[in-house]
Design goal:
The chain is α+β, with helices and mostly antiparallel strands and 182 residues long. The longest helix is centred in the N-terminal third of the chain and has 31 residues. Helix content is 41%, strand content 18%. Helix 1 packs antiparallel against helix 2 and helix 3 crosses helix 4. It starts with a strand and ends in a 9-residue tail after the last helix.
Length: 182
């Protein structure tokens, strides 16, 4: 068992499963800090602290919800399956095993994504196509493990990109033949 903290979600790795929670780790710290500042009479910083951590929690909740909806709508083979979501409070996902992408793999994959999806990749938050969000399952098969939308106000959502281009992305990320050597 291992716990990994992102900026908006906490991820619990247990065997072949991944449990993703909106970032609740700071809530104990919030309560302790708010009480201390109340006792000192420092009311100005309390709302800022609470707002910042509440926003992170809401973003994590939104990421869980959009990740689950994206999986349910297209079930693309390059997405780590999200089996269940309890209103975004917890997602249960298949844990994908494999290697980290090399720079060469990453350049090839992201380059093909850009060329074969009408350049839409340039409108996305770069977080989505970093090597950390991919697992290399074989020499020619890749899996996205983090695909929930970061921003609910952004019209260029990653889940929208996946839904629009999932056939092309499947060809890029799940080829049965090894990629050509460049």
């Amino acid at each position: 068992m291992k716990i990994v903290y992102g900026s908006t979600r906490a991820v619990l790795l247990i065997g072949n499963l991944v449990l993703k929670f909106p970032s609740a780790e700071p809530f104990g710290w919030i309560i302790k800090t708010v009480v201390k500042r109340l006792l000192r009479g420092d009311l100005n910083s309390i709302s800022r602290i609470v707002k910042t951590d509440w926003v992170a929690f809401c973003k994590g909740l939104h990421q869980n919800q959009t990740e689950y909806k994206c999986w349910r709508r297209c079930r693309a083979p390059f997405l780590a399956p999200t089996y269940f979501s309890l209103f975004g409070l917890v997602n249960i996902q298949k844990r994908e095993f494999g290697e980290e992408l090399t720079i060469k793999d990453w350049l090839r994959v992201v380059g093909e994504m850009g060329r074969n999806t009408g350049g839409d990749i340039g409108e996305l938050d770069p977080h989505y196509y970093t090597g950390e969000n991919f697992v290399k399952k074989s020499p020619s098969e890749y899996c996205l493990i983090d695909y929930g939308d970061n921003d609910c106000t952004n019209s260029s959502s990653f889940s929208g990109y996946v839904l629009k281009w999932h056939k092309e992305l499947t060809e890029i990320l799940c080829t049965k033949e090894p990629p050509p050597v460049v």
